[in-house]
């Protein structure tokens, strides 16, 4: 496979990941740095991919700790592993808060059941102290759009492990790419 072919295949796999719940890259890990400067990683569902712009879309509750942390430090890595392939995607997050145009459009596409997951108590809040506040689910719904600037592709294959680095410009164009030792 050429570097161009790897680029195309990776973004196709990510698109499939967003579309098909049983596919390998549907569930990814988002790593970021918290307000104390410590690394944090958590599992997120990949919701949408724009292969031209090189963006990934995730949804989250704005009351979760990651929202504040990402507002202060938007540098992230998204990690996925499927079919002997590791994708490490470095990028910068754009936060789209509740009722913004992007959040509103994403909200309309959610099922009622998924919408209601944003109506409960704040993520990470104490079970022993149930909140009696009535919350409007949509007020908590935020969208993360991650602009990817580096894709680190690594394939494990018995005799022939392979790894490549692909760099993207902020408009999504592939600027340079190279093979590296795995
Ligand atoms: C399979 C699975 C999928 C998840 N998907 C999401 C998601 O799409 N968005 C989200 O905010 N949290 C999701 N979570 C919960 C997060 O992993 C995490 O516990 C939560 O967002 C709080 O993270 P934080 O404390 O870093 O803000 C998911 C958890 C699991 C186990």
Radius of gyration: 18 Å
Unreliable runs = none
Order of helices and strands: HEEEEHEEHHEEE
General form: elongated
The CATH topology is Pnp Oxidase, Chain A
- The CATH class is identified as Mainly Beta
Unique ligands: flavin mononucleotide
Helix content: 10-25%
| N-to-C span | 16 Å
Number of strands: 9
From the helix content, strand content and strand pairing, which structural class follows?
alpha+beta
The CATH architecture would be Roll
Number of domains: 1
* The CATH superfamily title: Electron Transport, Fmn-binding Protein, Chain A
How many individual helices?
4
Percentage of residues in DSSP E strands = 35-45%
Average pLDDT, all residues: 96
- Tell me about the largest β-sheet: 9 strands, antiparallel
How would you characterize the overall build of this protein?
With 182 residues, the chain is α+β, with helices and mostly antiparallel strands. The protein has helices at residues 3-19, 65-72, 101-109, 112-116, and strands at residues 27-33, 39-45, 48-50, 55-61, 75-82, 85-96, 141-155, 162-168, 174-180. Strands 1, 2, 3, 4, 5, 6, 7, 8 and 9 form a 9-stranded antiparallel β-sheet that branches. The longest helix is centred in the N-terminal third of the chain and has 17 residues, at 3-19. 23% of the residues are buried. The site of flavin mononucleotide has 15 residues, from strand 2, strand 4 and helix 2. Flavin mononucleotide is lined by residues 27, 40, 42-45, 58-61, 64-66, 123-124. It comes from Candidatus Pantoea symbiotica. InterPro entries: Pyridox_Oxase, Pyridox_Oxase_Alr4036_FMN-bd, Split_barrel_FMN-bd. Its cofactor is FMN. Keywords: Flavoprotein, FMN, Oxidoreductase.
């Amino acid at each position: 496979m050429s570097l161009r072919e790897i680029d195309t295949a990776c973004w196709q796999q990510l698109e499939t990941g967003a579309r098909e719940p049983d596919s390998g890259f549907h569930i990814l890990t988002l790593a970021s740095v918290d307000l104390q400067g410590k690394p944090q990683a958590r599992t997120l569902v990949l919701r949408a991919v724009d292969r031209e712009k090189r963006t990934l879309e995730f949804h989250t509750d704005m009351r979760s700790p990651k929202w504040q942390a990402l507002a202060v430090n938007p540098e992230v890595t998204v990690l996925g592993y499927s079919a002997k392939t590791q994708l490490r995607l470095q990028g910068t997050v754009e936060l789209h808060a509740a009722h913004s145009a992007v959040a509103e459009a994403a909200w309309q596409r959610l099922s009622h059941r998924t919408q209601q997951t944003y109506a409960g108590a704040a993520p990470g809040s104490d079970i022993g102290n149930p909140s009696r506040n009535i919350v409007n689910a949509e007020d908590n719904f935020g969208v993360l759009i991650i602009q990817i600037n580096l894709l680190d592709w690594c394939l494990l294959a018995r005799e022939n492990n392979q790894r490549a680095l692909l760099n993207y410009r902020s408009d999504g164009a592939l600027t340079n790419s190279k093979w590296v030792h795995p």
